[in-house]
Amino acid sequence: MGRSRGGLTTKIHAVTDAQGLPITLKLTAGHAHDGRSADDMLGTIGSGQTLLADAA
Q1: For residue 11, what are the contacts with CB-CB under 8 A and spacing of at least 6?
Q2: Which H/E stretch holds residue 26?
Q3: Nearest alpha carbon to residue 23 among 38, 39, 45, 51
């Protein structure tokens, strides 16, 4: 967990398949940059697969 002005925060990052089932899950501190988490999670996507991304 990370500390911010709002208190303790956590981000949940997920890679899912086409049906929305999780392939990879990762928890980071709320103040952590999303790009650093995405970098190592992209290794779970194989050659020829389609990537869709969203930030909520």
Answers
A1: 27, 28, 29, 30, 32, 34, 37
A2: strand 22-29
A3: 45
As beta bridge partners, residue 29 has 10
Question: What whole-number distance in Å separates Cα of residue 1 and Cα of residue 27?
Answer: 8
Domain-by-domain residue ranges, the chain?
Answer: 2-44
Per-residue pLDDT of the chain (56 residues; tens, 9 = 90+): 556 566 678 888 888 888 888 888 888 887 777 777 777 888 878 888 877 777 76
Residue that the structure tokens 């990879």 belong to: 24
Q: Tell me how far apart the alpha carbons of residues 50 and 31 are, in angstroms, rounded to a whole number.
A: 28
DSSP state of 36: H
